[in-house]
Amino acid sequence: MNKIDKSIALFDQAKSLMPGGVNSPVRAFKNINGNPIFFEKAQGAYLFDADGNKYIDYIGSWGPMIMGHSHPEIVNAIKNQAELGTSYGAPTSLESDVASIIIKNVPSIEKIRMVNSGTEATMSAIRLARGYTNRNKIIKFDGCYHGHVDSLLIKAGSGVSTFGLPDSPGIPEDLAKHTITCPYNNIEAFIEIFNSVKDDLASVIVEPIAGNMGFVPGTLEFLQTIRSYTETNNSLLIFDEVMSGFRVSLGGAQEIYNIKPDLTALGKVIGGGLPVGAFGGKKEIMDYLAPEGPVYQAGTLSGNPLAMAAGATLLNLLIAQNPYKGLEEKAKLVLNGIKEIMISSGIPFSTNQIGGMFGFFFSEELPKNINDVSKTNDEMFSSFINSCIENGIYFAPSKYEAGFISAKHGDTEIDKTLEVINKIVKTGEINK
Fold this sequence. Notes:
By secondary structure, the protein is α/β, with parallel strands linked by helices. The chain folds into 2 domains: 5-66 and 323-426, Aspartate Aminotransferase, domain 1; 72-321, Aspartate Aminotransferase, domain 2 (3-Layer(aba) Sandwich). It has helices spanning 5-15, 72-84, 93-105, 118-133, 173-176, 187-197, 220-233, 252-257, 283-286, 305-321, 324-344, 370-374, 378-390, 411-426, and strands spanning 39-43, 46-49, 54-57, 111-115, 137-141, 154-155, 165-166, 179-182, 201-206, 209-210, 216-217, 236-240, 263-267, 277-281, 350-354, 357-361, 393-394, 403-404. The protein has a 7-stranded mixed sheet, with helices on both faces. Strands 1-2-3-17 form a 4-stranded mixed sheet. A hairpin with a 2-residue loop joins strand 15 (350-354) and strand 16. Helix 2 packs antiparallel against helix 10 and helix 3 (93-105) runs parallel beside helix 10. The longest helix is centred in the C-terminal third of the chain and has 21 residues, at 324-344. Residues 157-162 have low confidence and may be disordered.
């Protein structure tokens, strides 16, 4: 069992310097009543903490480490660009390189704008949708996380078709009232809500594959219904593919579902592990942005040359190697192996995956929305995750987060993972 004395001390220090000791809440391990692990380096499929412990990593920085940590070609690209300059505050050809790759591989995107995070991407896409349609309201879905944008950090009201309510102090109710929430994967509820606000509906934003309620893919019929209704109403459909873009396939979830949104938000993979975001879509919509059009959006570090160099390198690696089938096979091996161990021990367990993006739940039925996920067993999940981490297997410290596998996970890592989990289950370390 790993000793984490240095991580405990580092967390105590961090709590005196930063709110909760972290710069993103899930890192605090509150969901599993644990102590966060402080890492010092990463290589391939592995993370190494401050105490010298080694972990098989199934988070991959929440997706972008699809080809493994510290890939030499990406590292070299960053080093080479750093020697030329880290930021210019001016255009570079690197921006066009990344834009060209994205446009070539994501058919719905004709023009694109680089930003610095997934939150910026969704925020800007919503502003553009409102400006382009001259309408105010948006529909989002319970459990879909689109970043910490005021307009999108909204929880459901008391009924299926009620207006949203602020999900955090600091968000004015007057702003929240323009965001309407709807149950995910619920066609009937969507149609009811849509019809009640369609005259002032600027856009519908959705994760086609939700990654912040665990891993919950949208059904084909659900996503097709949204596309049909928005198209008929001249409302814009925004796909939030910050997680799924270039992660589940080269063309993202929209390629898998064969659905073209009007706008797409991207992030994570397209920056090769550096902070990045982007949003793009139809030419006539994107040209509504300044300096072409009246909708203002800007960013001092947007299109940062380090992020663009890393992103272009990773995207070209993905195009050249096309690892997606292999990633899905690896994810299935891990998940089927874990499920077999759990079921044989009488523990309710369900799994799902697309490409190298996956989720598992301590429940017999596979969840279809955030309410289903909330009903899965918290105690089993927490004890399982803590035991895995203590034994060198690093899964997401929240049942509301998806998992990720990389091209560097091989038979050795998969076998070790299943060996550890089998031991955990057989020795009764999971609270039943």
